[in-house]
Design a protein that fits this description.
This protein is mainly alpha-helical. Helix content is 76%, strand content 0%. The protein contains seven helices and no strands. The protein has helices at 5-26, 33-55, 66-81, 87-115, 122-143, 156-172, 177-197. It starts with a helix and ends with a helix.
């Protein structure tokens, strides 16, 4: 499966964003660097791993370990840098980065499931949501945070709407899949950011 460089870049951005949220979630708690590395990697690859296990396809990072290196690198950089952040900055940054990762991952997953022809038309939306929130759920369970999903923030709804819209485009206007993907990513992130700001 040949990846377009832009697609790969977006996946790496999503991977890094999720890894960073994991580090921000545990920072004040004097956890060692090994613990941080584990949580960063699990958060970054968790959603996609669940998706691939459900799909019964090779898990995406098994053939390309660069996802894991990206997660580790992003986690370490932020671990070193975060001493300069205030608590409120950390919280806001974490929510926005989580939105970036969720938007990128859910749309990419929807496309992957669609291309595999798996459980159309519902499975792409369901697995898009699972991929978008899976890593964050694992992060929140591991770090003992109240899960974003359980809190009042619009969390799964923007992802669901974005994935449904993307599936509609793939169904009826497949030629526009690239611009539609970008629109859906921006839409999901925009709704999430709006929900955070208000």
């Amino acid at each position: 499966m040949h990846h377009h460089w832009l697609e790969l870049a977006l996946e790496f951005v999503g991977t890094a964003a999720f890894a960073v949220t994991a580090v921000l979630a545990v920072t004040p708690r004097g956890i060692d660097i090994f613990g941080i590395a584990v949580i960063a990697v699990i958060t970054a690859i968790g959603g996609g791993t669940i998706r691939d296990l459900i799909l019964g396809v090779p898990v995406f990072w098994s053939s390309d370990l660069s996802y894991i290196w990206v997660a580790l690198a992003a986690g370490m950089i932020v671990f070193v840098a975060q001493r300069q952040f205030t608590r409120s900055m950390i919280h806001r940054l974490m929510l926005h980065l989580d939105g970036v990762g969720a938007a990128l991952f859910s749309v990419h997953a929807t496309h992957k499931v669609w291309d595999l022809g798996f459980g159309l038309p519902l499975a792409p939306v369901m697995l898009g949501i699972v991929t978008g929130i899976g890593g964050g759920l694992m992060r929140d369970m591991l770090t003992g945070r109240p899960t974003l999903l359980m809190s009042r923030e619009l969390y799964a709804i923007p992802i669901m709407l974005g994935c449904i819209f993307y599936v509609l485009v793939l169904s009826f206007f497949p030629a526009y899949d690239k611009p539609a993907a970008i629109c859906c990513i921006v839409f999901i992130f925009g709704l999430r950011s709006a929900a955070i700001i208000w």
